[in-house]
Amino acid sequence: MDIEIATIGGYEEVGRQMTAVRAGDDIVIFDMGLNLSKVLIHDNIQTEGMHSLDLIDMGAIPDDRVMSDLEGDVKAIVPTHGHLDHIGAISKLGHRYDAPVVATPFTCELVEEEVDDEQKFGFDNEIIRMEAGETMSIGDSGQVELEFVNVTHSIIQAINPVLHTPEGAVVYGLDKRMDHTPVIGDPIDMDRFREIGREGDGVLCYIEDCTNANKKGRTPSENVAREHLRDTLYSMEDYDGGIVATTFASHIARVKSLIEFARDIGREPILLGRSMEKYSGTAKRMGVDFPSDVDMIGYRRSIDQTLERIMNDGKENFLPVVTGHQGEPRALLTRMARGETPYQLDDGDKVIFSARVIPEPTNEGQRYQSEKLLGMQGARVYSDIHVSGHLCQEGHYEMLDALQPQHIIPAHQNLKGLSGYVDLASNQGYTLGRDIHVTTNGNIIQLV
Ligand SMILES: [Zn+2]
């Protein structure tokens, strides 16, 4: 059976992930993401009403025109998890394919919210919920099967999809870290990866998340960030002024920890900001392991009313969890820093960034500005209470050992970022150009 991999997006950047695997006549697409930084660099662009070709020209969504060079029918679009760089282009490109979106329930909910907001294109693809550990037959040959293996990442219900073919398995490895004690959900299913590496014809190809491939060591568990956060908040138990926290709105496990520790130190947590309400509201609706009795407020006017109430009742009784961890100019924390909200920061008030700065000049500049403005109001900044959602080098070695793939395609980075992975795979006996395929967007690699 012919096996081809089309590397469509995310092979020259972190963002706009998209890869297609053809097995005989059947094609499965993994991820269809948005490169948000290409949108945010232009002030005030609303993508909802934009045409896909304009977004492709901006480099914001994958250029999927290479799909016409693959001979076969797309049978499924499979986003691995709900981050925008993996689902954010489904609303723009999904309708071009007569195929269902297949994902875990939380990811499906987020995809549905994305396509509901879309104004330019209609979307009537079926959306099929499939849990980690489940499989689905692909096409009519009876020889190709899709499996979801549970992984751990900075958003709940992440999976690595595996396409089983008569030539071996194709494992799509974006995005994960190896977490044996996640705060929500099950640990990464390393037993299953080891089985896949050893059963039948083994692993034909492994497409790997190289975000942290240049970082030594091992990515800690979410539990480490949780304990760091606990230690930080407990140390503030006797403080009788304002404490404000910010983190990735989509990081449900982190938001859960913030809510729990706020209550432990006698403060009422309130989630504020549009994306806080969106992600946490979805988690609450779906009944995942998340506090269901916390207030979430998304609209600006209601937010300002709530902040006024907090000031009247005494800010020492509350812990607002807000948007703005990257210093985004329109996010709530940045508005607070500029003194544009009813929330008054005083000398010694604490601001907790449970996030790292995404290493990109725009983010770095905006975050610098936000922290400076907070400091000018007298706030004390606690930064980097965080662990990454991506494997570092030791995790990559472990994955290679578990899967023992014949071919490797490094992804989810630019060329510089991929280099660390090429080095470590070379240490394990792989050779660049023979069985390590470093590539760019818009190429097709024929494996069989
Ligand atoms: Zn991700």
TrEMBL record:
Keyword hit for Metal-binding: yes
One Pfam entry name: RNase_J_b_CASP
SUPFAM superfamilies for this protein: Metallo-hydrolase/oxidoreductase
UniProt enzyme class: hydrolase
Binding site for substrate: H386, V387, S388, G389, H390
Positions contributing to Zn(2+) 2 binding: D85, H86, D175, H412
GO annotation terms (biological process): RNA catabolic process
Domain Metallo-beta-lactamase: 15-228
A GO cellular-component term linked to this record: cytoplasm
Location(s) in or outside the cell: Cytoplasm
Cofactors named for this entry: Zn(2+)
Keywords from the named record: Cytoplasm, Exonuclease, Hydrolase, Metal-binding, Nuclease, RNA-binding, Zinc
GO molecular function (one): 5'-3' RNA exonuclease activity
Keyword Ubl conjugation in record: no
Chain positions recorded as Zn(2+) 1 binding sites: H81, H83, H153, D175
Alphabetical list of NCBIfam families matching this protein: MG423
Subunit structure, interactors included: Homodimer.
Protein function: An RNase that has 5'-3' exonuclease activity. May be involved in RNA degradation.
The protein's name in its UniProt record: Ribonuclease J
Lineage: Archaea, Methanobacteriati, Methanobacteriota, Stenosarchaea group, Halobacteria
